[in-house]
Write a structure and sequence with these properties.
377 residues, alpha/beta, Aspartate Aminotransferase, domain 2, Aspartate Aminotransferase, domain 1, 2 domains, 7-stranded mixed sheet, two-stranded antiparallel ribbon, 11 strands, binds pyridoxal-5'-phosphate
Length: 377
Amino acid sequence: MQIPFNKPFLTGNETKYIEQAVKSGKISGNGTFTKKCHEFFEKRYGFKKCLLTPSCTTALEMAAILLDIKIGDEVIMPSYTFVSTANAFVLRGAKIVFVDSRLDHPGIDEEKIEELITSKTKAIVPVHYGGVACDMDKIMALANKYNLFVVEDAAQAIDSYYTGKDGIMRPLGNIGHLAAFSFHETKNVHCGEGGMLVINDDRFLNRAEVIWEKGTNRAAFFRGEVDKYNWVDIGSSFLPSEITAAFLLAQLENLDDIQRKRKSIWSGYWDGLKDWAGAASVQLPFIPGNGSNNGHLFYLVCKDVEQRTAIIAKLKKNGIQSVFHYLSLHKSPFYIDKHKNRELPESDRYSDCLFRLPFFYELTIKNIDSVIQIIKF
Ligand SMILES: *Cc1c(COP(=O)(O)O)cnc(C)c1O
């Protein structure tokens, strides 16, 4: 038996739409398929404006440009995250102020943010790890109190929700001033490499379009709002081609089916492992009452690194690939000297003890059962 960690799902329409894009004669960015993807998200989740990008990494880079991040500005984020969350802001000269993770799940510890805010703080970047919502009421209240911006790293958070104290359930990516999604092949919905910037705050609408199109007002030109297009700001090439958008649209049209399947895989792991985990002192995923489960990943947090190494090795011996991830960024070779000696024990614990089980659309009940049996016995 061989069970890979990931197998990118194909809905069957990707090549058909790519062929249409190729034959249409309009293959560069911001054509019909790109607009259909934007409309899908704007309609389904009420995002004010969406811009497809080549990756979530570049969407975060656009966010850092939009917020006018300058040398010496401070940006607050969890240490337990993917490197791009930090890199996007470091590229603009920011100093990253890392926060520890929560005891009950790997997301940012919302209670430890306020003490780190200074006069230089410009933004907070919560990461919805595993698609599980950070406590956005608390984070938005801090942003209002100290006049900060919030960029949601929603790379893993498609089709996930947060219910605020006001009782309103909002999609993740619709709460911060800006949000970034990923369509990398390891995410629920993908196009190989791809991403999207969401603009929820009116103040960023016009400039986002300019930055997206290399610092020009080309989009306004095509709408007939200006009679020639010009270099008006900094920017870069942040548009994916129509080939990428065509692939993505085929996936989006199957989102409900993909989500149903992924949530059932998640429940299969949960039901099969919950009793064992208690007995083995292994921490299971936690979904807070104000969050939702989008079936992005299934992780286990072992009691120590030895237990994790042993379980991963046992799975590997049986042809099953499981992976651990995120080494605390505050201890990375690039940042360790820049991080003031604040200990972040929970972030380190997830770095040492968390690992992820195989998780993809085509995983069968039999596969899930094999993984569970090998972990247990
Ligand atoms: C996947 C991921 C990214 C990067 O996404 P890309 O599309 O590969 O650039 C950023 N942040 C988090 C939390 C991710 O999981």
